[in-house]
Amino acid sequence: MPTSTKQLDELIGREYRHGFVTTLETDTVPRGLNEEVIRMISARKHEPEFMLDWRLKAYRYWLTKAEPEWANIHHPPIDYQNISYYSAPKSGKDGPRSLSELDPELLRTYEKLGIPLKEQEMLAGVAVDAVFDSVSVATTFKAKLAELGIIFCPFSEAVQKHPELVQQYLGSVVPYTDNFFATLNSAVFSDGSFCYIPPGVRCPMELSTYFRINEKNTGQFERTLIVADKGAYVSYLEGCTAPMRDENQLHAAVVELIALEGAQIKYATVQNWYPGDKEGRGGIYNFVTKRGECRGDNSHISWTQVETGSAITWKYPSVVLRGDNSVGEFYSVALTNHYQQADTGTKMTHIGRNTRSTVLSKGISAGRGQNTYRGLIKVLPGAEDARNYTQCDSLLLGDRCGAHTVPYIEVKNPSAKVEHEASTSRIGEDQLFYCTQRGIAPEEAVSMIVSGFCKAVFQNLPMEFAVEAQKLLGVSLEGSTG
Amino acid sequence: MLSVKNLHVAVEGKEILRGIDLDVRPGEVHAIMGPNGSGKSTLAQLLAGREGYQVTAGSVRYLDMDMLAMPPEERARAGVFLAFQYPVEIPGVSNALFLKTALNSIRKQRGLPELDAMDFLTLVRDKMKLLGMDEKLLQRAVNEGFSGGEKKRNEILQMAVLEPSLAMLDETDSGLDIDALKLVADGVNRMRNAERAIVLVTHYQRLLEFIVPDVVHVLSQGRIVKSGGAELAVELEQYGYGWLENEVQVS
Amino acid sequence: MNAQIESWEKMALERVPQYLAGHGLPWVTRARQSAFERFVAHGFPTRREEEWKYTDVAAIAKRTSLAPDNIPPDPASEAALFAWTLAQESTHLLVFVNGHLSTELSALGELPTGARLESLADLMDSNADLPQALFDQQHEHTVFAALNTALTTDGTVLRLAPGVVLEKPVYLLFVASGHGTAIYPRNIFVLGEGAHATVIEHYFGMLEAHNFTDAVTQISLAAGAGLQHCKLLQEGKDAFHVAGIHAEQAAGSRFASHSFALGGRLARNDITSRLNGAECQCSFDGLYLLDGRQHADHHTRIDHLAPSCTSREHYRGILDGESHGVFSGKVVVHPLAAKTDAHQSNRNLLLSRQAEIDTKPQLEIFADDVKCTHGATVGQLDDDSLFYLRSRGIDAESARSLLIYGFANDIIGRVEAPEMRARIEHLVLDRLPQGDQIKELL
User: Fold this and answer.
1) Residue C440 binned pLDDT confidence (cut-offs 50, 70, 90)
2) Helix (H, G, I), strand (E, B) or coil at C42
3) Does residue A437 register a pLDDT over 50?
4) Cα–Cα separations (whole angstroms), residue A358 to A210, A235, A313, C130
5) What's the pTM?
6) Rounded to an integer, what distance in angstroms lies between the CA atom of residue A100 and that of residue A122?
7) To 5 degrees, how large is the angle CA A220–CA A221–CA A226?
8) Which of A429, C279, C357, C358 is the most buried (most CB within 10 A)?
9) CB pairs < 8 Å spanning A and C
10) What is the reported pLDDT for A481?
11) Which residues in B151-164 are b (16+ Cβ under 10 Å) and which e?
12) In whole angstroms, what is the distance from residue A347 CA to residue A335 CA?
């Protein structure tokens, strides 16, 4: 085995840092899925009629659908009747009204994760909504945001306080019929974040949601809805972690973004769900539907994701470019190690005139990890002067992993310009030698090369997140060279 | 031959040329000098017929025709030639095919018989030799994989073959070493005659040591701020454009 | 559709074998029947299948007859067609009319010792030694290949002993006359160690012919062998054409495939190569030039199964009218294929509002020490280039034609056989406005 391969092997063996379990009293519904469960979830949340109807429609539709099979992922069948669809920490009656009512155990959990929920300790400039298992447990800086007319609250609260907004926008980008997992989410989703930025308002701080799966045998089905009204701006961050468990757990979230005329939404994710152990035991099955619609002219949506966790990642943050001159962006780093599988990418649908999209995907495969970029660039007949540029690069560390690129390009307008480029490479022995010859330790050299490989994506993350993402990759490749 | 009057040109709403007056008579060599961004390349490209420029005022007459109303190929057939600052690469089309197509289009316009392959080759070979060009370049795709110097010489070759009445050279000296520069200058000087006008667009005075102009214009911020004889170029070289711009502001 | 399959399943199994080649050979009959069962079990592909997502073959399934023609070729009436074929003395020419070899029109010429060039039907009928395993495949790339095995009419078997080099190209001309017939050519090329050949497969249909061609070509290259394969598709405007070209390469062999899709209403080519030995070279080049309501689909796949192989793929499309181009190219680098060097590109020019292109360039990499890149573009003629040409006195229409020709010529220029190259160049120019002028200047 060449030295570099051996070094890489050692470098990519690492431990998951967020694998602890929090002991809490919880209110968890029995496993299984039927209309009763859905009615129960809806009742616990005191939902209006329209929500229950929507959930039931979704559930009935779901019964007619089968799991999609086209992705490059393999897993034992998921027993949907062996999952509990609702779990909430038992504190207070209907959830905490302020941070002081929070179970101290919960607060400690978030502190362990490095996410302080007490406002006085918070990083200025980041408002956080924390979702624990199925429910939102804390939202910070709410009052300050409310002064500007910004609504940032748990989804369940939005259903109560702003039903007209929820009814208007829910399912308008990802309808309940969209795909198997989105349909399931529509039926059973328990909470998530809701955000509305009124016309002309520039949200003064980063909005952030941290998702945590804790309870055993639960699925997490959160739903996030962000609406940026005319000329509004918001930057949104999402982080995810879960305990180490031997069983696989299902996470099937939906995120919908709506940008009206001249609005801009930046959505960044650092996904670090438990990836399973070195033998591929356990880990989160992450089947997520994320889609934004540039509904108004001159609107702009950008997705940035750093995907290092989960046993399986199945997600395609997409943009529907409906408004003229709208812009869609997708920047992604996906790392698969050990037995992780990622099938991720984006769909850019050009409908409006003069629409632009950029796709930049960096896949890193190590161990026996399988990493697939799957993307679709679609230019419809009316999309005059559409432009897309896509670049997909794969980096292979070791000879037992896989990197796959599956781009689809469909063009029905002759004024379109679409460019796709992809490359696959490894860390060359000459690169490593060059670094070590200059006195750099091998693990540092690998980290450096991987960071360099991902740099163009990290540049699109807000500062704190970029640092975190970089650390995450660093940890992923940490180890002694012996 | 060429008469530009009060020409105003904008690109995407931004005014680049702000009232140009220029008269070029047969047999004359004019040099248009100016700092980067002064608009000199815009002027050359506009005269060759490039799209994307809005003429907001003024007129251009060439051989008593309304030049602005003519598509680029008609201008070329009427004898207008532009040596591009950045010659375009055309993959898959050989230099020979390209030049033959152009030459025969122009000859047809002039009522001359089309050249057959042999005559064409004889004509081109001679001119290539004078420019120190490798004959193999004829079979290569237009400008594809050419070095910077080869591209510039290729422009001069096309000029020599197409024999224009008004030849404009846009920054033809940039990127050339001294030997190549001399070859290019020789090529241009050989074409000087009483019927032909030549307009050199250049940033530096270097080219003008080898091709001595009759008139030198200095373009700044979209206007010709000074015109004079060949000595003006030497002064510019000595004092730089700043000197002139200051002088303009003072006056 | 199923009812129809059943109805002619009966016909095919009961009647067809009687007039197809090799019906006297039990193994051929068995092979045909089992292939037919595979076809019936699967049925015609639908757009729900990933590999047929962009190509709808319902029109083929709706044909009244898929049975091959039993009419012997009539050379007298077709002869005029071939006046323009390559000079007979410069190739080994085999002409098939409506699927059957016409000995009158063919001119085999003299073959070097160790070279065999024969009709598949003749070999079957004379019970001569056949590459049986190649004909009787249990796993086809597409269901159309199974249909081909079931109904193969005729084709060419080329076998070269080790070290044999064919100086002249083998020219296989498949002509479809206006009968609207179904044609199932099967070609098998087996090259021994170090043997070299150039093969041209030319499919030509009369303008109005509603024929359906389902062709399969199998190529086996021993160590160090080299094959240049050039396919020219020039079917009639209402013809359906489905074909597979499949190569197996041993160490150090070279395979160059060129595919030119210029004709036909619907064309689908599946072109694959498996690089089984070290240091193979494989190049796939293709051009689809479409207008009207033409549909052309190229599906290619290169499997790197051994170390240090090189593959190059260049496909280009020019789409006018209401045409629809499809490209799906897959490069798979298997775990043992270290030091793989693979490059793939697909570029498309969309010239009309109604034209459509769907392209899917794919990489599947399971080894780390590799250099793989791919790229795909969709766009229009470049404005700078157009201006450059016009500034040299060339009118706008000719300038466009010249640029389209240049775009195509990058692919045409890769064909090594000079006469073939010139022929394709002319066929492309025939389709372009002012193309005649450019032709004169060439």
Assistant:
1) confident
2) helix
3) yes
4) 27, 18, 22, 55
5) 0.86
6) 15
7) 130
8) C357
9) 108
10) 26
11) bbbbbbbbbbbbbb
12) 20
**pLDDT higher than 60, residue A11:** no
Query: Per residue in B113-148, pLDDT tens?
Result: 988 888 899 999 999 988 888 889 898 888 888 988
Query: To the nearest whole percent, how much of chain C has pLDDT over 70?
Result: 91
**What pLDDT, in 10s, does the model give residues A440-482?**
777 777 777 787 788 888 888 877 677 777 777 765 554 322 2
Rounded distance between C-alpha atoms, residue A303 and residue A451, angstroms: 19
DSSP three-state, residue C169: coil
Structural domains in chain B plus CATH codes: 2-250 (3.40.50.300)
* Cβ partners under 8 Å of residue A433, min gap 6: none
Task: Using DSSP bridges, classify how beta strands A312-315 and A341-350 pair: parallel, antiparallel or unpaired.
Answer: parallel
Closest CA to C39 of C161, C182, C146, C112: C146
Burial class (CB in 10 A: 0-12, 13-18, 19+), A100: exposed
Q: Which two tokens stand for residue A398?
A: 């070791």
**Rounded Cα distance, A78 and B26, in Å:** 85
Return the residue in B46, B67, B90 with the most chain C beta carbons within 10 A, the one to mutate for interface testing. Answer: B90
Give the three-class secondary structure for C43.
coil
Would you state the structure tokens that stand for residue C402, as one six-digit string?
A: 């010249």
Query: What's chain B's average pLDDT?
Result: 89
As a whole number of angstroms, the distance between CA C52 and CA A331 comes to 30
**Residue A131 structure tokens:** 């979702």
Provide the pLDDT confidence category of residue A360 given band limits of 50, 70 and 90: very high
Q: d(Cα B224, Cα A173) in Å, to the nearest integer?
A: 57
Which pLDDT value is given to residue C341? 95
pLDDT at C399 over 90: yes
d(CA A257, CA A174): 9
SS3 sequence of A266-317: EEEEEECCCCCCCCCCCEEEEEEEEEEEECCCCCEEEEEEEECCCCEEEECC
The whole-number pLDDT of residue A2 equals 40
ipTM of the complex: 0.87
Identify the weakest region by mean pLDDT among A96-110, A148-162, A309-323, C241-255: A96-110
Is pLDDT at A310 greater than 90 in this prediction?
no
Alpha helices in chain B (DSSP H): 40-48, 72-77, 95-109, 117-130, 148-162, 178-191, 206-210, 230-250
With b for 16 or more beta-carbon neighbours within 10 A and e for fewer, the C195-216 pattern comes to bbbbbbbbbbbbeebbbbbbbb
Collect all residues of chain C within an 8 Å Cβ-Cβ radius of residue A404.
362-365
β-bridge partners, C255 = C227, C282
Question: Domain ranges in chain C?
Answer: 3-276, 382-442
Q: Chain C: nearest CA to B34, how far in angstroms?
A: 24
Please, do chains C and A touch (3+ CB pairs < 8 Å)?
yes
Give CA B153 to chain center in angstroms: 13
Q: Given CB atoms, is C357 within the 8 Å cutoff of chain A?
A: yes
Structure tokens that stand for A423 in this block: 């490359």
From the centroid of its chain, how far is CA C172? 12
How far apart CA C15 and CA A155 sit, in angstroms, is 69
Q: Do C353 and A413 touch (CB under 8 A)?
A: yes
C387 part of contact set with chain B, CB < 8 Å: yes
**Using beta carbons and an 8 Å cutoff, which residues of B are at the interface with C?**
48-51, 71-73, 75-77, 81-82, 84, 87-93, 97-106, 109, 141, 158, 162
Which ranges of C278-395 would DSSP assign to H, the alpha helix?
383-390
Which is nearest to B68 in space by CA: B88, B38, B46, B42? B46
How far is C416 from C424, CA to CA, in rounded Å? Answer: 12
